[in-house]
Specification:
Jelly Rolls; 2 domains
């Protein structure tokens, strides 16, 4: 990861340009813009994720594989998720959110909600979102993928080789 962004200095007429100044002011800042802090988890699990939790819980429980940490320069972070789900009940609800340093990004009922059009695997549906977390202070921040259901059983296909549903969801965060 490149060094953190540094506020460009104001040059004075006639001031000598040194290689170290130009490296810090131009090269390092351009490198930071090209490669900001980023973390990605593309799922390829031994088993799909399943929950019956009716309040928000971490998708992968205590495994923390879907808990992404980045060190930011402060400001805004883009959070993205996409995946394929099924629900054991007709019109079963899937709610998704992201816990950012202990606070839910969506609040209330989460960032997004979807319902199963048909009960079981034949009613698989996609859920995706892109959200921006604003106003983060410089430093380390943790983003945890959270979910809840209306009851019964909600499945997130996670590259486990499920016939016809060997999908590989992604969860990622990037400073913007």
């Amino acid at each position: 990861m490149p060094a953190a962004w540094s506020t460009p200095r104001t040059w004075v007429t006639g001031e000598a340009l040194l290689a170290s100044d130009l490296n810090a002011q131009v090269r390092d800042n351009l490198s930071f813009l090209k490669e900001p802090p980023f973390s990605l988890r593309q799922m390829n699990e031994a088993a799909d994720y399943v929950t019956s939790a009716t309040s928000m819980v971490e998708v992968d429980g205590s495994n923390s594989e879907l808990s992404l940490t980045i060190s930011t320069g402060g400001g805004n972070v883009l959070v993205v998720f996409f995946g394929t789900f099924s629900h054991s009940a007709l019109y079963g609800r899937c709610q998704m959110d992201v816990d950012v340093d202990g606070v839910m990004l969506g609040g209330d009922n989460g960032l997004i909600q979807s319902r199963s059009p048909i009960a079981g695997v034949s009613g698989a549906f996609s859920v995706s979102f892109a959200a921006v977390k604003t106003g983060l202070a410089p430093g380390s921040h943790t983003f945890k993928l959270m979910w809840a259901t209306s009851g019964a059983s909600l499945t997130l296909y996670a590259g486990a080789g499920t016939s016809g549903f060997d999908h590989h969801p992604q969860f990622w965060v990037r400073e913007i």
